[in-house]
Amino acid sequence: MDSFYCGIKLLQRIVFLSCLVAFSVKVTAAVHPKQEEANKTLSELYHNLHNLPKSDMAARLEVISAQFLGKEYLLGALGEGIKARFDQAPRYRTDAFDCDTYVTTVLAIALANDTTHFKQCLCRIRYENGHVAYTNRNHFTSLDWNQNNQRQGFVKDITTTFKDVHNQPVAQIAKTVIDKPSWYQHLTTKNIRLNVPSDEKEQLQRLDDLKKRGSLFSKVNSELPYIPLTALFDAKGTANNYLFSQIPNAAIIEIVRPDWNLKETIGTNLNVSHLGFAFWKNNVLYFREASTIHGRVVDVPLIEYLKEALNSPTIKGINVQVVIPQSPLPNGCTSVNKPQ
What we know:
This protein has twelve helices and ten strands. The protein is of the alpha+beta class. The strands form two sheets. Strands 3, 4, 5, 6, 7, 8, 9 and 10 form an eight-stranded antiparallel sheet that branches. A two-stranded parallel sheet has the order 1-2. Helix 3 crosses helix 4 (99-111) and helix 4 (99-111) crosses helix 5 (115-126).
């Protein structure tokens, strides 16, 4: 009887310990492994940044963005984290990027002084009002990312300030309609990324929920100034160095395809297809980008990059944004002087 009782107690203890282990694993899994990996990288990066002489924001952006040269290109690199309902890809990472998440991550690192404030800055840059949710994410560069970050005082569009040798403005306006409801209806179960394997029924239920939420959005007219390739190059393909010289160091360059017709494939047209940073090195302007062509983060001469774009039937020019704060912001990007 005693042995039976001891056996029962032993079994209870095993069950109890198993529950503790399961709970511990569950708690640990509350943070995506890629985020834990990034925390180490960010801690080391901030340590090195603190050891650098005080520099302006352009220099800070150059140093930070250079840390990720050679990192893998990965479309849809980020999601809302392991507890998200729709996209459980990591909320942040430093091992792989697409063009949008590369610019967003570098900017968030630059505007913060430590890893804690980086996380807060990332939320404010990547999501409307800093509220982390799939439907709050800045999915559309011209409509969401630009406008939300301009409103917060993080970036400023300077495209319309570019002038030719006759002191005449060269910018044109790209116009399209961003059809968010239709875009949401074109999402599939591939967009429902869950870390724990689930059946197709669960994915379909969550997809249906996401589409219902997306149907509440409205179509929005989107306008974006751009410097046309026809101004940046002459008929023979020779670069207009007078215009290129007006691009500031560490500017954000957006590749503009006015009213790019993607209605059948993604449900809406777009104005922007790509973005990255521009850095001057030895009098050469480089485009630092997470590149689908190269499969990694690379530096390519911007003039050469755009010269190849002359052959594209849809790429028509570039938009230029600059980062406004000249030093890291306190309190997780909440204390910034917003434009009037």
